[in-house]
Amino acid sequence: MPARERLILALDVNDPVHALNIVDRFSEWVTTFKVGLELFTTRGPDIVKKIHDRCKKVFLDLKFHDIPNTVVKASIVVTRLGVFMFNLHASGGFEMMRLTSETVVETCLKENLPRPKIIAVTVLTSISQDEFKKDMGYQHGIRTHVKHLSAMAHRAGLDGVVASGHEVSAIRNSIGSGFIIVTPGIRPSWSPPDDQKRTMTPKEALRNGADYLVVGRAVLSQTDPEKAIELILLEMLSS
Ligand code: C5P
Question: Which of 42, 97, 106, 138 has its CA 20 to 30 A from that of 225?
């Protein structure tokens, strides 16, 4: 897959005009844009349609985490929006993931819709090993937990997971190729971590086996965002 198809730019803004300006401005370099909670809560499905009108793909990052019936119904609505990819929390459980995957496939066949990739969020990249144990009360480490959740998502029929660069090779080694790994928390050596704790450079994340890299502030918070995206793509090409 070419580097520019592996890069997903996060539209973490709340103004739809601003978001669409970003889409137009980076259209030369980016195929897929991520619509997250802030933008979707402000503008809803309309922003997804406007990005599709520009012939770009959408990763709808709403991280569903609820009982199976609720997630399944929301996932059908998302599927009808024609997004390329959406996600839910693996910690919502096996049955929630299995039923969602099964129902989305059935809906796509029945309504002749393109099948979105369904991705499970494992452990957020903003959580450190220390917080995971002390605050969240787990006895085992993050990598063990991410491996466990990834195996469950795979068994449930999902297409892949969201995981930090630090867990990518463990997932690859245990599940193998063909299972999509989307990696946020991407920070080139020249950008600050912000609130992210388990960060990794674009080159390292790809070398470890990530399929897609989600990049937000490392581009959009820079004084020269075009230069930043070019540097990131160059780094990805050299991985
Ligand atoms: O600005 P930055 O590159 O840190 O943004 C990362 C994006 O990826 C944010 O939109 C965030 O919501 C999302 N994300 C994440 N960690 C996850 C899943 C999604 O940072 N585990």
Answer: 42
